[in-house]
């Protein structure tokens, strides 16, 4: 009875798939799909929109989106998607912008996303300047161009009246950078969320580099605290800044025992601060630390070594003090991204290889720290692909983006999306 039931279910499942003809584009079908009149029409419309896309890029770049302050840009991005023909655009409870395109069958959901936030603090002057073919401004490539690509997909889908079988979400996520800790994408994949079955993130500057694995990271804020005091009268008190210095020095001594071998791992002290004046022993000294690896095992080892360095520093500074209370240290975790290896035999990945090939690009599958890390860690097909064009100096004030065949990046993303969501007949 039980076995019979199982067989029946299996037949039913097979029928569901075949009756609707609902399958992702197979590896071999990419060339056929690319040649379809609708796709060709969409490809042309993408080229026609080049100038408008550039104007949109400049406009959106100049709306700042510092970590945890993405609302303004989110509103503009939502309006942009509406103007491009999206009829259902929402901003969810954490601030993600989500345009929903209902599928003809709707048994599965494919999301394409780019992150809204930049790494730049609110007081950064953001004015796009042009030098030759280059557009220069903080955040112009990473990831404002990614958002423009998502919007360009909406326009192309409408221009060529492309209908897909799966539901499609076009998304602008919050919190991809820095201490945002992927909170936007974590929300999309929270336990009680409506499911997303495959995920395409746009966030990279080289079309040949496709992210299919997640580099894991642990992020900490370490704070040494003590009594402080006058630099002259209280000389001999334990000094939090000195302890912090020891910690960095110890980490540099023992960190390489992990980072010099095996799969790549890395550590970085990104920010330090504390203290009140040049002639005061500080009450507190803090640093923000980022530890990374594509391998969970190496990440754990590096984590242990980092904590040892901090404890050793505390001990060293406390033993060196002449009098006064001991320093204390707090190691607070402020971010965690999973290290995860994605399967490369997913249709999504195989299609991406085929598509890149058809545009004359080689593909280098790699690990990265992007929005895709979350679906990858849950075993859901996910890739992070390039924003098209050329770019450089990301995360710096001199960041640039150049429209060198930028339309190709959009065409590649569209083809990948339609292959995954299935073209409705
Ligand atoms: Zn980015």
Automatic annotation (TrEMBL):
Residues 216-314 form the Peptidase M20 dimerisation domain. Transmembrane segments: none annotated. Keywords: Cobalt, Hydrolase, Metal-binding, Zinc. It comes from the Bacteria. One of its GO terms (molecular function) is hydrolase activity. The keyword Zinc applies. Its cofactor is Zn(2+). PANTHER family: ACETYLORNITHINE DEACETYLASE, PEPTIDASE M20. This is Peptidase, M20/M25/M40 family protein.
